[in-house]
From TrEMBL:
Protein name from the UniProt record: Insulinase (Peptidase family M16)
Domain of life: Bacteria
Length: 399
């Protein structure tokens, strides 16, 4: 006997008709909701604000920045001293018989960067950084490398000699009142790289439990022998192809998030009137030689601004610059900063500034609100006070 099979529809016609009407609405609602938002990255810090950390899940490597503040190099002698210590630090880290083999055994990559007011060591690792390893690195790093210091000084001074053939470099690090100072590199090295002076920032895919024990001083060792070196006289003033004028002033100490917001906004504001004036000058006189460079450098005491002007037609900066700021300049500068703060790109560089100034770890989250309340009159007054400070000075080439 032939068997008969019965098939029943999963959905009735009425249900299908309802689904056709409802499904587009559901798709529209889901598209409006967008993808699931990622939790906001939070920066944490220890109680002494020496170690700052942020977990970035999408980051594949662990990154550790070591920050050692030092006095800014305001003249050629101090610049030479700082360059000598930086070169010795690089040799200590890279030479196999110094720390090179030990770092390779840890699987760490390291780069050294020298800034006006601090030395920065950037380390990368495929695994979290441990207390014992970082403490050992800082303690060993304080010991100067075994090198021919006279030869190292000669090489460093030769590099500086070549750099200072450039008129702009010469202006930015002019001769000091005493260019024949003796150097004691062993003492300078140990003093500037003490474990207790470092600041640290950390990022990585997971939390890393570093503690303040990493700053423990190195075990007592025999004092270093005095090694006094006498640098050779630096070259004479270089020739300048056009009139160059340096304007330099200090920035106030950053003690709060309010100070930090004012410093950052001021940095962005100053660029706009300078660019506007230069554009107009070149439009009026295309053959006229004019230009500028502006460098803001963070230091533990606040910062340093170096403005180099090329050409003879520039107005008097202290009286002119604050008055050129306009309300629209403040808003443009504010939006530029807010855009820079977005996302995790460059986040550790922002954390480095928090560590240098030892600001609260939530400063970046609070920064937009602080930027919003800063008005034109307050920024004009802030800039004017820096330009009228006792430190403000100018220097020009040709003299």
């Amino acid at each position: 006997m032939e068997s008969k099979s019965r098939r029943s529809a999963l959905l009735s016609r009425g249900q299908l008709r309802l689904l056709i009407w409802v499904l587009p609405v559901v798709i529209l609602l889901l598209s409006l909701l967008g993808p699931e938002s990622q939790p906001e990255a939070v920066i944490s810090a220890d109680s002494d604000r020496r170690i700052y950390q942020q977990v970035i899940p999408q980051q594949t490597l662990f990154r550790l920045h070591l920050i050692a503040p030092h006095p800014p190099a305001l003249d050629a002698s101090t610049q030479l001293r700082q360059r000598l210590i930086t070169q010795a630090c690089i040799m200590r880290l890279q030479k196999p018989d110094e720390l090179g083999d030990w770092l390779s055994a840890q699987g760490w990559e390291v780069q050294v960067q020298s800034n006006a007011g601090y030395r920065l060591l950037q380390l990368k690792s495929g695994r979290p950084f441990a207390d014992s390893d970082v403490r050992q690195l800082l303690q060993q790093l304080q010991t100067p490398p075994t090198v021919d210091w006279s030869a190292l000084l000669q090489r460093t001074q030769a590099e500086q000699y070549m750099m200072r053939q450039n008129a702009e470099v010469w202006l930015a690090s002019p001769p000091s009142s005493n260019e024949h100072l003796s150097l004691d590199p062993l003492a300078d090295y140990a003093r500037q790289l003490q474990p207790s002076d470092w600041r640290i920032t950390l990022t990585g895919p997971e939390y890393q439990s570093l503690s303040s024990v990493i700053f423990d001083p190195a075990p007592s060792s025999a004092p270093f022998e005095d090694l006094m070196l006498s640098p050779k006289p630096l070259p004479v003033t270089p020739a300048a192809n056009a009139q160059l004028q340096l304007h330099r002033w200090t920035l106030p100490q950053v003690k709060s998030i309010q100070d930090f917001a004012q410093l950052l906004l001021g940095r962005e504001l100053v660029v706009q009137p300078l660019s506007r004036w230069l554009k107009q000058q070149l439009a009026d006189a295309p053959a006229h030689q004019a230009g500028y460079s502006l460098r803001w450098e963070a230091t533990q005491s606040g910062g340093l601004v170096t403005l180099l002007l090329q050409g003879e037609q520039w107005p008097e900066i202290p009286a002119w610059l604050p008055q050129q700021l306009q309300p629209e300049n403040v808003e443009t500068a504010r939006q530029t900063l807010l855009k820079q703060l977005e996302g995790n790109t460059g986040q550790q560089q922002w954390m480095d500034l928090l560590a240098l100034y030892q600001l609260p770890p939530d400063s970046l989250q609070r920064l937009p609100t602080q930027l919003e309340v800063l008005e034109l009159s307050a920024m004009q007054q802030w800039l004017q006070s820096q330009l009228l400070s006792d430190y403000y000075h100018t220097l020009s080439l040709p003299h």
